[in-house]
Structure formats: C-alpha cells, structure tokens
Design brief:
Layout: E1 15-18, E2 22-25, E3 39-45, E4 50-56, H1 61-78, H2 85-104, H3 131-154
Helix pairs in contact: 1-2, 1-3
Amino acid sequence: MSYPQQQSAAVPGQAVPAQGQFLVVACRMCGSVPAAPVTFRGHQGFVIVMRFLSQPGPFCRDCGLATFRAMTARTLIQGWYGWASLIITPITVLINLVRRGQVANLGAPQPNPYGPSRPPMNPGPRLLQRPIAVIGLAVPLVLIALIAFAISQDS
C-alpha cells in the first residue's frame, strides 16, 4: 500500500509526515532532527510556598542538553528554601538526570529536511562546571553542617 506524499510546513516541536508512513519529530527550539520527546523540570522553593517549572520537548541533543543544564542549575540554587523543597529538589534533579540520557544519546542535530530549522542552542559548560550549580550543591551541605554543629553544641 502506498501513502500519498503530503506537503506541509513543519512547525518545530511537531511531528511531520516524512516518506508517507514515518513521522519526523523536530526540536521545539531549533527545528532540527532527531529529537526526543522529554520534559525537563525545575523547582523553586520559597519559605512558605513553592513553584514547579517545566520545559516540554521534543528536544534535539544540543537544545536538550542546554535546557537540562539551565533548568537543573537553577533548581540547585533556587530549590532548597522550604521544608518540602528539601525533598522535592533532589527528586527533581534525579528526574532531570534520567531524562538527560534520552537527549544525550541522540545523534548530532541535523537540519530538518521537511521544514524550517535554525542552528541548535549551545549546550554551554557541563552542569558541575557552572558556578551556580556548585553553589547550589553547597547549600544543603552547609545546612547539614550547621545542624550537626548545633547538635554537637547541645551535648
């Protein structure tokens, strides 16, 4: 059975018909292919309330890594400041780490042959090479050290 060829403009982030029966998933940021349908999460903890953030895909490898690194670094610096946030922040980071693997295993981004595309985002430095992420990781360590110091002074 042969499928009719459809001519349509591809919109980044949407699946477009390619060669009749296959779908090409393009990156929502740049329109490149291949792309994986993942959603990266973020968390901001405030003293009384908290805010959950998300950035839905699909993402190509470079845009996905850039989004993962930005959202996770911001979560590490902004996510610890509330009682429930002390538990939610590490869970959010672990979820992002798992989803990072889905985009990191993709091939190099290529221009979409079925629609518009532009150069992908620059992934930037690795997560632990970003000062904001290192400072964010220090927040719970300092908190644990202060609690241990306070307990040792009560004895």
